[in-house]
Design goal:
205 residues, alpha/beta, 7-stranded mixed beta sheet, 6 helices, 28% helix, globular
């Protein structure tokens, strides 16, 4: 699977082609005010222009990290084994990364260990129009989506609640994959195909 994470230019090109979807998703991420965050599975840092404070980018691919701005801290590591002390960072941010993880429960246990305050998770649920679309592309052998395991909304919420308290859920991307792409609004629910969840650390590690 490692080779798909090394295609940083292909990753960035998707967001350039689908610029209206990108702007809608970026607008949603900004609503959560990500500040002083550890971006886990950062890729080329596509959402970092709406981040505040000191951002740490963690990725398993050196090719992705090379695309990150020079003034950001970068860590080459596996998301399942975060090389940080307990309570080392205020915030963790995860976008899409969860569909490429081998053990999501173990991952969030590790996130709980290293964060002080909260985790923000943005994902395309399996039980959404775009999640279904990507899932079917994967069945046909798509370069990226054939390697992904899309999770349903309630499955993720149940995992998060084992270590955190969910405080906010918002979403965007309400058009179907067959519709003309456009900039979209945000709703305070999970009815869209791009969902962001803020979860607060309920107990100290």
């Amino acid at each position: 699977m490692m080779e798909i994470f090394n295609d940083s230019q292909g990753y960035k090109k998707w967001y350039e082609i689908h610029d209206k979807i990108y702007e809608s998703e970026k607008n949603l991420v900004a609503k959560f005010n990500p500040k002083d965050c550890l971006d886990i599975g950062a890729g080329p840092g596509i959402f970092h222009e709406v981040f505040d404070g000191d951002t740490i980018s963690l990725d398993i691919s050196i090719f992705m990290l090379k695309e990150i701005k020079r003034d950001e801290d970068k860590v080459l590591a596996d998301a399942h084994y975060l090389p940080f002390r307990n309570n080392a960072v205020k915030c963790a941010f995860i976008s899409v990364t969860i569909c490429f993880l081998e053990n999501i429960e173990a991952f969030y246990k590790e996130v709980h260990r290293v964060v002080k305050d909260k985790v923000i998770t943005c994902f395309v649920p399996r039980d959404s129009p775009w999640g279904e679309y990507y899932y079917n592309l994967g069945l046909k052998g798509h370069k990226y989506y054939s390697k992904a395991s899309f999770i349903r909304k309630q499955e993720l919420y149940e995992i998060l609640r084992k270590h955190f308290k969910i405080s906010r859920v918002m979403s965007t991307l309400f058009i179907s994959p067959n519709d003309e792409e456009k900039f979209e609004d945000i709703k305070n629910d999970d009815s869209g195909s791009f969902v962001c969840v803020e979860a607060l650390k309920s107990e100290p590690f």
